[in-house]
Structure formats: C-alpha cells, structure tokens
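Annotators were shown the component list below and the corresponding predicted structure, then asked to write short factual statements about the assembly.
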Amino acid sequence: SQELEQSPQSLIVQEGKNLTINCTSSKTLYGLYWYKQKYGEGLIFLMMLQKGGEEKSHEKITAKLDEKKQQSSLHITASQPSHAGIYLCGADSGAGSYQLTFGKGTKLSVIP
Amino acid sequence: NAGVTQTPKFRVLKTGQSMTLLCAQDMNHEYMYWYRQDPGMGLRLIHYSVGEGTTAKGEVPDGYNVSRLKKQNFLLGLESAAPSQTSVYFCASSPGWPGNTEAFFGQGTRLTVV
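Structure shown to annotators:
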C-alpha cells in the first residue's frame, strides 16, 4: 500500500517568514492533494497536482510535484497567522484503487 | 451550500453501546468515505462506497459497519463501542475517482467511548 511521509511534523514560524512542507510517497503519485485543517474542523481543499513538474499557486501558497512524481512540496510565502493549521497531503493509492491515502500532517503555528 | 453534513457533531458513548453516524451530501457525488483521525496516526480510511448500494473496506474496518442505501447518505455504525474507537470521524465525498477529483469533507464527529 502507498505511504505518504510528511516533514516536518510541526513547524513554528514568525509572521512574515517563508516555509516549506514536504510530502514523500513510497510509490509513484497519480494525483497528489494538499488539504488544510483548522483545529476542530474538517479539511479544506487547497490544490491538486497530477503531472510531473506541475506547479500551482493559490494566493501565497505554491505547491509543486517533482518530475518523478514521488515528492511534493508546499511553500508558503510571507506567512500570516491565518496560515496556521494542519496541512495534509493526500494521494490516490493507485492501481485502480478508489482510496485516498493521507500523510500524518504538518502542524503549522505562525507567531505574530 | 450544505456540502457534506455529519450528524451528530459530538457524542459520548459507554462501552458496549451502539450508535450510527450519518453523513449526507447534496452534491450528487458517487464516492463517499469514512475516515477516523487520531493523534499521531493521521487520517485512516474505515470504509468507502463507489455508488449507491455499494460498500468496501478501507484500512481499518474492524468494529464498524456501513450502508449506502441512498446515494446522498452514507451511514457508519458501531455495534458495540470500545474505548479504542474514541476518535474524530470524518466523512467525505467526491464526484469521481479520487485520482483526479477533489474530495469534500464534513466538519467531523468527535466520539468519546468511556
């Protein structure tokens, strides 16, 4: 089965700083998703990447999928307190599976 | 804009009691999922459904049953609750194969089994 490893597990940054979260897969990624979760709430979709080398941006958040499609990074520029939360990467398990597998998440805290 | 709605939001059960969690979506999605989220374990898939009348086991199905009698509803049942089932449960739905479509999540149900 596919496993997704996220790093770091937690991150504390000062407001205005840039940061990167990584997601590494044990298998080739067919579809890679980034979600954000605020404490006590559900997951909010951020971006989906499907093609090797693909890069997408939404406001100050950019996500990339490497050429070999086994790693993705999420980069936040000039972080704000509103960026705080848990970031999870998810991926299709592949081989005709109908399942989404998730990493364990990266907890981001932004200090004003 | 209801999206995915979970009922109830909070529940406390005694060991051995039974309960049903309801998930309803109004987006006409074919695929629905039940996940549990535990500290240090991330999101783990319990059961899922690829259409009305179908269900399948996920990563951690033991102790749970599901039903998808109507396309818009996906029920998760605990027949005899155990403290190990204390968790936050999330329902999700997607219009198609998860490899190329976004999944929409409910707000979660926080279940405590004492």
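Statements collected:
1. The mean pLDDT of chain B is 93.
2. Chain B has no helices and eleven strands.
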